Amino acid sequence: MASSLIYSLISLLLVASSSATITIPLTPNSHHYNLSNSDPWQLLNHLASYSLARAHHLKHPHNPKSNSSSSLIKIPQFPRSYGGYSISLSFGTPPQTIPFVMDTGSSLVWFPCTSRYLCSRCNFPNIQENKILKFMPKLSSSSKLVGCKNSKCAWLFGENVQSRCQDCDPSSPNCTQTCSPYVIQYGLGSTAGLLLSETLDFPEKTVPDFLVGCSIFSIRQPEGIAGFGRSKESLPSQLGLNKFSYCLVSHRFDDAPISSDLVLESGSGSGDAKTRGLSYTPFQKNPLVSNAAFQEFYYLMLRKIIVGDKHVKIPYNFLVPGSDGNGGTIVDSGSTFTFMERPVYEDVAQEFEKQMANYTRSIEVEKLTGLRPCFNISSGKSVYVPKLVFQFKGGAKMEMPLANYFSLLDLDVACLTIVSGDSVVGAAVQSGPAIILGNYQQQNFYIEYDLKNERFGFQKQICK
């Protein structure tokens, strides 16, 4: 691709009926920190900062414009020390295997692309820019640039994108002008490139003409991202999935060769049958607001937050998204720590402080980690920590394992691993979803996104 395209993308960024079983690893992403070599408090500070930056993005999103047989696909999923979980997917003819961050808070699937791929600020531990795996379109016989009159171009840029096909003959259905370059913002970075039509290859199934992003330039994105959101360009939408599910291995296994399965189900399936043992709550209808990015989120109907035996009173406008898009709860595999809008967070944090008043607050550790409250627990042989429960519409209760909401990296100090707007970075976030359920709080739960029946299921389970 031409150097001028790379420079223009940099400018944009700077300005702005048989069944099959396939196994692909889902692993934690290791590009930001090596857990074994890191100060645990510095690591917590990084994850808190990442969670807040991610929350800011989700609340203020940038908004740019197979066959029918039943199948079951299992993909290995690995935890990473930067706070996410990764999978590997194969694209092209012959297939090229690339790692991706699995992300339910965005929709486009994209990979680092061509030998000219540039990634700014990507020299993380264990990763150097010249070691980033890149997809090479010239080595794939099935790789095609998406034209601006292709209906899939409108998935990202809206229906009016075809009116901007200036180099096309209006009377001709054929057009060689490419679809507009995309620019996508994430919590701590961004990426830009062009859209390709490619073959997605699984061991026993291939998906032709899959829309995928060929990213030429990124900031802090050394791996591709597999978008599992609700928009047309997402992996679940393009595969026509009925449901997908995962069980996230504990972050204590970050960067270890330990994985669990991401399971993709499509075809006629089991109708409206529920998975045995799961508690379910319906997905909430997404708010109809001008920012279309909110439409790709998975909204849940959170009704109560319980600390110990105390029901924390949450104002209604934080529990239900309004016509302006503010409020409500979403579930996001790309966020690490759960985010709560400041008034919600303060009520929850204060309840922990009340019920743990016998322990001394560790202000020094709070400053180091950006987390609050932190307690000195060295004085007692046994430690009392109140339970944390999220109760959803329909009565489904998600009772958190202790490791999911209190850090125990130090024998003397424990911190609540929930963040809010100005815990680490300056100003509070005041729009978009009020609560973002991150992957740290989803560890060791079996999680199911039942897309066909519009419901979210879960049960506590040790993930292996």
Automatic annotation (TrEMBL):
Q: In its keyword annotation, does this UniProt entry include Protease?
A: yes
**Peptidase A1 domain residues:** 85-459
GO MF, one example: aspartic-type endopeptidase activity
Cited SUPFAM superfamilies: Acid proteases (SSF50630)
GO annotations under biological process?
proteolysis
Q: Which residues form the signal peptide?
A: 1-20
Keywords, in A-Z order: Aspartyl protease, Glycoprotein, Hydrolase, Protease, Signal
- Catalytic site residues? D103, D332
Gene Ontology cellular component terms for the protein in this record: extracellular region
- Similarity comment text for this entry: Belongs to the peptidase A1 family.
Protein's UniProt name: Aspartic proteinase nepenthesin-1-like
User: Which species is this UniProt entry from?
Assistant: Tripterygium wilfordii (Thunder God vine)
